[in-house]
Amino acid sequence: MSERLGFIGLGSMGRPMAANLLKAGYLLSVYNRDVKKTEPLVLAGAVRADRPRDAAKVGGIVITMVANDEALEAVTLGYDGLLASLDAGGIHLSMSTVSPSLSQKLTELHAAHHSTYISAPVFGRPEAAAASQLWIAVAGEAAAKKRVYAILEVLGQGIYDFGHEPYKANIVKISGNFLIASAMESLGEVFAIAEKNGIQRRSVIDMFSQTLFSSPIYKNYGTKIAERSFDEVGFMLKLGLKDVDLLLDQAKQSQVPVPFASHLHNRMLGEIANGNGERDWMELTRGIDRDAGLGK
Amino acid sequence: MSERLGFIGLGSMGRPMAANLLKAGYLLSVYNRDVKKTEPLVLAGAVRADRPRDAAKVGGIVITMVANDEALEAVTLGYDGLLASLDAGGIHLSMSTVSPSLSQKLTELHAAHHSTYISAPVFGRPEAAAASQLWIAVAGEAAAKKRVYAILEVLGQGIYDFGHEPYKANIVKISGNFLIASAMESLGEVFAIAEKNGIQRRSVIDMFSQTLFSSPIYKNYGTKIAERSFDEVGFMLKLGLKDVDLLLDQAKQSQVPVPFASHLHNRMLGEIANGNGERDWMELTRGIDRDAGLGK
Amino acid sequence: MSERLGFIGLGSMGRPMAANLLKAGYLLSVYNRDVKKTEPLVLAGAVRADRPRDAAKVGGIVITMVANDEALEAVTLGYDGLLASLDAGGIHLSMSTVSPSLSQKLTELHAAHHSTYISAPVFGRPEAAAASQLWIAVAGEAAAKKRVYAILEVLGQGIYDFGHEPYKANIVKISGNFLIASAMESLGEVFAIAEKNGIQRRSVIDMFSQTLFSSPIYKNYGTKIAERSFDEVGFMLKLGLKDVDLLLDQAKQSQVPVPFASHLHNRMLGEIANGNGERDWMELTRGIDRDAGLGK
Amino acid sequence: MSERLGFIGLGSMGRPMAANLLKAGYLLSVYNRDVKKTEPLVLAGAVRADRPRDAAKVGGIVITMVANDEALEAVTLGYDGLLASLDAGGIHLSMSTVSPSLSQKLTELHAAHHSTYISAPVFGRPEAAAASQLWIAVAGEAAAKKRVYAILEVLGQGIYDFGHEPYKANIVKISGNFLIASAMESLGEVFAIAEKNGIQRRSVIDMFSQTLFSSPIYKNYGTKIAERSFDEVGFMLKLGLKDVDLLLDQAKQSQVPVPFASHLHNRMLGEIANGNGERDWMELTRGIDRDAGLGK
């Protein structure tokens, strides 16, 4: 447990994840583009890396948790990137939500450098990250997966293995976000009908989330959407659109028409056009309300 | 418990429900259009009624569990109908999935006859009915609801009250079926992408139904859809379309655009056009496969 | 030409049509629910009928041009209705936009009364009606069609025959309105993109309506939508929804999924929910603008 | 007219266009990746260029008519590309259907080389190209547009100017293709309903294409779709998808939800998944038939 890990990306998810690794006894070299965000972790014992490549060491493990494809490419490739310094025997444990195609590309580049790329994207909002309650989908080369398993156990409450090709875990991740968004749209349509017929939105989700749909997503998202309790921004709508669009890209490459995903793209795009892109993605349901003349 | 109840409609849902009431000690007068289906219940102690009106007695309680609006109108109204014989003080406990507007109409007609109409539609497939594990949404006049409560407790594992206007329970019921169909479509889209990318459909639902979507619908329907295990017909696709169309009607009256519901209408209609109307409604996902060139 | 015709329904379309028949030398008995609208025609030589049945005479021809199915049933059936007085040898020339199923029902009822029902719905806005420039789809029994042909020639610039079953002309009519609404939606989407990219909406329609889409609908509707010139109400949005819903009903009966029609239903319903039901149906494109954050 | 032009891209569109320029008296240097396609033009007097850059000469005009963004980048950029040899004062007259964003990029790159990029995408199938009956949308710097005007007049029957920013002409082009695809889908839905109700598909388009929709697209495409006369491949479905996807990209950048375009994406993708990507794009209507259980 006294192994030194690199950790790159200290946003709302990465920060509590890194903190949990420190608590679990790992030594960390942390990098973040905005250096200020490294401070609480340095106070807690982490070492600050000035460049992504400084967070990785030869043959070591470096974890990345960044916002999107562009950010992951930036911290991985190029002179400052981790790929250069990770070297033979190293592992890049990539936990961000990125495109399957970027995963494929990085898998190949790492292989060419004799290091290993593992995809391990996570489900859960920042509270879940802080509580080590993430759900993790993992895929990649077997020996490397084995080596990072203890790390994943620190971060999550459940680990699901999708085989040895990293990009498959990314497909599972964007599929999950699409399933969440679909549930939100369908609940939003139901709530709008209920409201117009004098039925309490809350009473509807209370029943369904205790019965047919007694799951975290329906309970947590459903209740907040019923109450239009959107002030806390757990996941920005514009990132939700990014993920739905990753699914649409994958569906296109795979030749699978996905009409629900297409609709969600338009729904989210409409909210962004109306100025809500940086609000919580549950606000995609505002479009349903607007179309119904509700919730003004 | 030795009260005599009427029970009308002995299809795949009504039969086990009536049997459970007998087991619980109720006396039953049972009516079914096809008289043969009354036989097992008569053997178990029920009395056969020759007409719907014979199942109801003055001031008594009569339960209806029939296929659709037409059937409910047929057994309720007209010379042979239960409305005529129920009379003052009687209760019509209507558990079928019917339109909110028919509920409103029957509420008024019963009131004019000094009897009371209660809506108590149920969630659950025939196995759940047999196991007294239905979920029940109930709405109607308070005193009448109180009087039928013990009956509902025999039939279900949970009862949710939506106030004193019966049609509201019907809106909740068709909303629930719409939520199920939406979950099926979104899972079907995800499975098609997974399959085309070499990811086991089953492994995807295993993860999601243990984590974000750990609810009966995702687990049961999701697993069957993943495995294309459609042989057992729990609920016919053409009845699924009926329910989505009830939601669309209500949405239209309420001026709520519901694009997911519209899509599901087209999806189901397409399967019916392709000859699958009497197969299980999970087969709506066959349309996704067909569009993707899968599953032939 | 001195034949006396009945004419029922003097709305924005019926009034100029009746006036043109008077000008052409026909004698007219006119009926309208709101009696005031008969006045200009009475001044022009028509006789006022107090009841629908008074507009029809034994063996004669009566034209109906009313708002919807309910209105057509009201003026046709019942004690006051035209069916009773038309009698053997009479022709009901039904020019309203009504459902194919009502056409089928009235075809049968007239046959039972030894009169003949002809469907001849029209395309064109009130200006076209005034200018005898309507396009007419006609269907019905051959001899009766022959007898009304001269009348149709007075009213329209082109007559298209769809055989001997009246309801087929109604299907063609609602299909046409659906095609118009589809063109409006697709133009609205194009204009929104153009506007956001600094391209004049008007310049786009100028090109297309002179080239690929050099037709009346693209030119007239397209130009008005480009300019958001919606003040004149030629056809109310709520009637547009009625017609799209007639198409959806027919598509359902025929087992044809029609996703564009479903979308238009939701688009129009959304505008009605936002208070625009009595504005011109071109305003369905406002929903596109609203989703794009435009046109406020 | 004895000016020497470069002409790059001799596919089904480029070949007749180049031939028409030769006939009009222009001298041509022609380049095509597959050199065999240059032969008929060389026989007709053109000079063969071995590389794209050889088709362009300093200060001259070079026309490109290639399949997609990748091809246009390939012939423009890099060591062999036309950009290098066109040089100061030269004009790149880009007539392909490419993305607005590539147009913006090439506009800037040409400006940096003191040459000028003009977008002039065309509407029309190969027959129209052969007959000099194309419709052309042009945009770019004024003096350069003036210099190429005579060329455009040789190729087309109508030229529409969209200002000085080249990418705007590309937006108009992809908008036009989207309008065509929308018209095809809406006609396909109408024809399916007609067919199921015993109405001749052909009689429906005959009426509409002579009346409300008396334009080339409705007449030509409409008639072929009515008759399912798809054997001649004028424009491949996979290219149709490419263009709808360019529109979707632009709509996303512009924050405009475009549900019809999203639907067409899924419709075309479904046909490609079913093996029809290289057939004519009118076959997108096969998906409608398949959903309706028709046309097997």
What do you see in this structure?
Chain A has 296 residues and is of the alpha/beta class. The first copy, chain A, folds into two domains: 4-164, Rossmann fold; 171-291, N-(1-d-carboxylethyl)-l-norvaline Dehydrogenase, domain 2, CATH 1.10.1040.10. The first copy, chain A, is built from 14 helices and nine strands. In chain A, helix 9 packs parallel to helix 14 (285-291). At the A-B interface, helix 9, helix 10, helix 11, helix 12 and helix 13 of A face helix 9, helix 10, helix 11, helix 12 and helix 13 of B.
Summarize the structure.
The first copy, chain A, has 296 residues and is an alpha/beta fold. Chain A contains 14 helices and nine strands. In chain A, β5 (91-94), α6 (100-112) and β6 (116-119) form a beta-alpha-beta unit.
Low-confidence stretches of chain A: none
CATH class placement of the largest domain in chain A: Alpha Beta
Number of domains of chain A: 2
Biggest interface, residues from each chain: A-B, 63 and 63 residues
Structural category of chain A is alpha/beta
What is the subunit arrangement here?
homotetramer
Q: How would the global form of chain A be characterised?
A: elongated
Secondary-structure element pattern of chain A, one letter each: EHEHEHEHHEHEEHEHEHHHHHH
CATH architecture designation of the largest domain in chain A: 3-Layer(aba) Sandwich
Rg from Cα of chain A: 20 Å
Largest sheet of chain A: 6 strands, parallel
**How far apart, in Å, are the first and last alpha carbons of chain A?**
54 Å
Strand order of the largest sheet of chain A: 3-2-1-4-5-6
Helix content of chain A: 40-55%
